Give the backbone structure.
Amino acid sequence: MSPPLSPIRLGILWQRLTGLMDEVAQTFVRTSFSVVVRENWDLTCSFLDAEGRQFAQSSRSVPSFIGTMPRTLAGMLRRFPKETLEPGDVLISNDSWLGTGHLNDITMMQPVFRHGALIGYLGGTFHTVDIGGAPRPDARDSYEEGLTIPVAKIKRRGVENADVIAFIEANVREPEETLGDIRAQFSAYDIAAARLLRMLDEEGIDDLTAVTSEILDRSERSMREMIAAIPDGEFSDEVTADGFDHPLTIRCTIRKRGSALEVDYTGTAEQIDRPVNSPLNFTYAYSVYALKCALDPVAPNNDGSLRPITVTAPEGCLLNPRRPAPVWGRHLSGHYLPFVIYRTLAQVIPDKIAAESGSPLWNVYFKGTDRKGGKFVRMFFMNGGHGARPALDGPACLSFPSNVANTPIEEFENTTPLLVREKALIPDSGGAGRFRGGEGQRLSFESVTDDPVTFVIRHERVQFPPGGLLGGQPGRCGRDLVNGAVIPAKTVQTLRRGDVVTFETPGGGGMYAPSDRDPQALSRDIASGLVSAEAAAAAGYPLLERTDDQ
Amino acid sequence: MRLGVDIGGTFTDLVMQDPATGRLFNEKVLTTPDDPSRGVLTGIASILHKTGTPPVAVDHVIHGTTLVANALIERKGVRTALITTKGFRDVLQIGREWRYDTYDLMIAAVEPLVPRHLRFEADERIGHDGRIVGPLDEAALAPVIAAIEAAGVEAVAVCLLHAFQNPAHERRIKAILTERLPGRTIAISSEVMPEIGEYERASTTVANAYVQPIFDRYIRRLAQGIREQGIARDLFLMQSDGGTVHQSTAAEFPIRLVQSGPAGGVQATALIGRLTDEPNILCFDMGGTTAKAALIEGHAPTRTTDFEVARIYRFKKGSGLPLKVPVIDMIEIGAGGGSIARINRMGLIQVGPDSASAVPGPACYGQGGADPTVTDADLVLGFLDADSFLGGEMRLDAAAARRAIAEKIAGPLGLDVVEAAWGIHETVNESMAQAASIHTLEKGLRPDDFVMAPIGGAGPVHACAVARKMGMRRVICPAGAGVASAFGFLAAPMAFEFVRASVTELAALDLDGLRAMRDALEAQGRDLLRGSGLDEAAFGTGFGCAMRYVGQGFPVELGVPDALLDAGDRNALLAAFEDAYRALYGRIEEGMAAEVVSWRVVVTGPYPDLRPTPAPEGTGGAEAARKGSRQVWDGTAGRFVEAPVYDRYRLVAGSEAPGPAIVEERESTLVVPSDARIRVDALGNLIVDLDAAAGGDAG
């Protein structure tokens, strides 16, 4: 058998396996047919070991996908047990409860075989803008939200399963884009599998699980050390989401004992029949992601580093809904979790957390007829301000806890009959503090077509702003307007030629009292126009002496 | 005489070639950071004096400089303003909205070069297809101009939406500003880089404006100095894409010089490839703080227009200022001789990205550095020699190296010092091999189709090991790697490139229009080259395009033979695209429509007839150049083996020797592993065949 692994060989092997995931992601992105994959990088490519444990992922990954992937694989294997998998098979599903929590994310897994034995899985999750159905802010159950692809083999022994392809093709609005992205991953997996096998030959590794086990154990130890450094105890706090007809409370209790940490969402509002429920997979993913960032950001993220953490939410609540609750906008509750966790831990580890950001992530779907007479669906992301940090201001318009890039205006206008009138920072939107929250942004879109353009939004933080921490003030709430009049934040509306819809994303919360802000930093804020003199006075910032300095 | 001059951090290197005899002369003088032109002029005077060359005999001075990159990294450009389309002045600050590190909550935002109070707006709008949606309100510019004037700005960048499709408004604003604000630099995006993407284009235009006045002053000073020395010639400069341009073009678009020096190094290795008949070369440049890799395919360096300068976080993509300029496509990682080795939170060795720099430097420099570095590991493993580092000018402290590795790595991991040193060496090699492999893949190429050419001080020490990890079979260690950049300036042909972006489906191509465009641009390029005094008979032209499937975002570059365009064969163009696509990704998308994104015309002058000084003639083979032997670590065998040490300057052409072996020259040391074989070609290049011992455990 293999000789015991020295730390040197272990390190080299690990480096090679993680590098391989970046290669998979690179191949996928470069051959992708969708803007959301290649511009927004709304994807993750992963390697899971023979026991289905998350081991390595592409470095530019969507945090939630990393957390849900092993759970999705486990669900897939319940349908197709390991023994039924063959070389060249690819499993697929977008089931909201097995996957990332909504139908738009498709997960695929390709088992990798060596000498006839299954040695691991190459997997990927990516976002597809349209998954059929009629997802709307007022959908009452998950059936309205589009096509559910049950766990299926989309490739069998290297051959595409025409039935599965046909089902998808018949149910989505842009099959070329969706199937193009699925097929782009087929070649990415094949290339990666061949490289993985060659790597194992070169390194003379017979037992890959021994390598992964060792790495996972070391990752676990690293996380346990960081948890152990926090004082034992039970801590609780809550945040309030705008919700639909009434606000929704998200309550978090963290029990920390020794080197283990439990996150419990008991006390959170019941699930509602509107698409804001977060299936437990998604709840888990954003909870462990938040803790990883705060406690052990440097060590790599894998199954081992998450072992010391448990996440529970009562069944039937917003964060663990029963089927067929509508879940299309599950981030509308899930993206609050890092903030409620940081709020809960703020007193204990104030130097490791951040104030609340202007999220859940804001986006808008536009649908209509493009210039060639075809149908189009385009999603556009708009990030709010990032929360202040213990020793740094929060950056303006930075994606957190998600991590999606924006779409260039020039690219967007090339594919839609819309004209973007403004993309600008909103002065005074960042929460005041010794360290300020980042600014939100204002984006205005004008319809320049005679065909109606429909847009769908479901925005949070228009009633309850992103909170500050430890004396820092909240950021500004967001707003949605059509032709200057405020509209509901969760709505479907239609634009006629000349109509302008405006979105104002929320600003991040501040940290520590504004009276402690460095006067020089404050005078730069005022010179930039991002903090007005009136707002500065109202926030309780230190008084500046007048100078001629700009 | 042709003269190449490269300003580095410490030294200014000069290489002079006599085209009549092919002879080359080198000179090295100290760089003068306060005014780099002084060092250059000193160096020129010195090399002319030493070789007895009259100044009038100098025909070409080709120059590369880090001035532009440094001004951006150190943020020492001029006070710059920006004018954007109304509603978009904050795009420069907002950027692309994603976090360059997934887990670090404390990452800093990249500060734009123009602060918000100097960002202004023009009331105008151009549509996605270049149509004017809203006219330019010239009256509304008056207060903007007044504010710019009052702010004491030296340079103004203008970047309007879709200006790459229709530059009319940018040009008008430039004309107005030139009239109203005389003496200021005005840079417009449609001239600096006419490409889609408002943030990246604005960032590039701003960076150009920000450095332009500084660069202009510098180049004027230098040109004047050269004339005063009696050299009655204009300057030429090396651009980041490896082409050379006249000083007037460089002064207008200095941002294209951001990678000037490294581009010279790559051109030098490209020349070695031509001379040794190796079309595919991976140029591996490992210095003190970073390693760079660039691919030369079919004798031409691969290029890109996606570049980032001044990264603030571990060389990570997204943490710098994006620049859309033609550059030789180069990756850079924080792995150099001075990179520090540590045990990370996982109990594993990690090397870099931080570096011990020059001061205190690696522990073995004996300047107080206590952290073990790659150089320390190389010394412990016998790859470097304490007495012959930098030609013996700097004695290394082997005991200090062992001590640092023992304390920080070996002890905590329970390894012996040599094992730990090997771990550091292997880890950094793996990082470099991996980064270079991913880079190769991104270009759609396979590493095992390439040979490696190492330059830089640490390049030859690590080249063979990195090449083996990448599945490569040959390493060519060029002569004179220490002055590679200056040498490369002489090696590059004069070239002019034109890019025309226009997204058009294959079926809708206007072939007559294309032929006319190609002919016009070719003629323009030829005029420019003739103006540089070159022989028209030797001009070469290239025509190519970037294509993708409709709906995709990343195009594939392909060459378009003249015959194909002249015959107007769309199917042949589609077939050429599909071939290129299949080679990249292993499949094509049957039945999907394809489109052209941009066209490229390159007009190239003749390749300079440039040969490195040949290896000395003589008999006695490698043995005659042997200056001793030492114990070096053999990683495969897991023990020290005795390796002969050769003096590179005494190796005669045709010499051969088996590995393990060490070849020392002043600036570097080539480490030849077991199972490899080394030979010296007629030009003095060291050629290492890595699988020389067939059947051996060469990996």
